[in-house]
Amino acid sequence: MTAAVFTVEATDGAARAGTVTTPRGTFSTPCFMPVGTRGAVPHLDSSDLEVLGVEVVLANTYHLMLRPGAETVSRLGGIHGFAQWHGHILTDSGGYQIYSLDPEVDDDGASFKSVYDGSACRLTPEEAVHLQALIGADMTMVLDVCPSAVAERPVLAEAVRRTALWARRGRDAFLAHPDAPQRQCQFGIVQGGADASLRLESAQRTLEAGFDGYAVGGLSVGEDRPAMLDALDACMVPLPADRPRYFMGLGDPAGIAEAVARGVDMFDCVLPARLGRHGTVLSDTGRYNLAAARHASSDEPLDPSFPDSPAGRWSRGYLRHLLATHEPTAARLITLHNLAWVLRFMDRVRARERSEQVREALRPSL
């Protein structure tokens, strides 16, 4: 069996920079993983990601199991051959998407309807392992229970209990699989909402299953920042230093800087592409809406302080024109810029040894 190995290269307090090694190879942390839910980051292809220097991409088991189906992905070379992407891929188990569909949940698994055609579906911890083995990602997630951000404590406590139950079953299924442990790594997920005591309990119970890496799920979903950070602090304490730590769904620069300061290594978010297709630009002076009239005659690039932006050759006026006329090239170019900006941000975070220096150096961006 091959586990994900985390090698620390620099630390200051809890903040750390390092390298994750999997059966596929290595990637540097802290890292940002663009979200290619259905096998592609919206508006971009694998060659774009290669040029940008992306090391890890996230895909979603829930969507791929429904269309085109995990068996089809497997027949077409697994997710790497299917998407012609040869870097690392992490697959979410689909738990977050399932729980947005108001599923029927019991201790065995979750029943829900397909978002595509309304057909009945069933997912268990064991099936999540099987599907992700077919898809062929390098890092896979155990199935978890992701409650609402406004759920009451009894609901959160039940989610922690069931997540721990599913974690043990998912880990057993993974280790018993004929080849997954040789080519994949598996992450457990810590739940508990914004309740610090439940977060600590969930972390401890997840640790008992002995995963290759550990993820924090169900945060940054609507709670205020202090509550998020208190919950994150609580569950980070018991997580082992020799395993990668992943904050699921966090993509805003301020949040990333705070999480890195607490020892988180991996992040994903749809933010760069979602903002891009709506004309919102990330820049060192803050995000802005390119559709605003003041940009119509501007000859400035999207971010003058980022001359290496892949969209840097075009003026704001030109890109606003494409956006206003619904030219798809606009979404593509702004997405390329936004993703490159986030990756550059992560490079700057890695370059700093002290978390206080991170926040100070990046303050205009936050």
Summarize the structure.
By secondary structure, this protein is an alpha/beta fold. It has helices at residues 46-52, 61-66, 70-75, 78-83, 95-99, 125-135, 153-176, 180-183, 196-207, 225-236, 253-261, 271-277, 316-324, 328-350, 355-361; strands at residues 5-12, 15-22, 25-29, 31-34, 56-60, 88-92, 104-105, 110-113, 120-123, 139-141, 185-190, 213-216, 245-247, 266-269, 280-281, 288-289. The protein folds into two domains: 8-269, Queuine tRNA-ribosyltransferase-like (TIM Barrel); 276-339, no CATH class.
Which features would summarize this protein structure in a list?
366 residues; alpha/beta; TIM Barrel; 2 domains; 8-stranded parallel β-sheet; 3-stranded antiparallel β-sheet; globular
CATH homology superfamily name of the largest domain: Queuine tRNA-ribosyltransferase-like
Strand content bin? 15-25%
Given the structure, what is the number of helices?
A: 15
N-C termini distance: 41 Å
Total separate domains? 2
Please tally the β strands and state the result: 16
Rg measurement, Å: 20 Å
Share of helical residues: 40-55%
Could you please describe the fold and organization of this structure?
With 366 residues, the protein is α/β, with parallel strands linked by helices. The chain has two domains: 8-269, Queuine tRNA-ribosyltransferase-like (TIM Barrel, Alpha-Beta Barrel); 276-339, no CATH class. The protein has 15 helices and 16 strands. The strands form four sheets. An eight-stranded parallel sheet has the order 4-14-13-12-11-10-6-5. β1 (5-12) and β2 (15-22) form a beta hairpin. The longest helix has 24 residues, at 153-176.
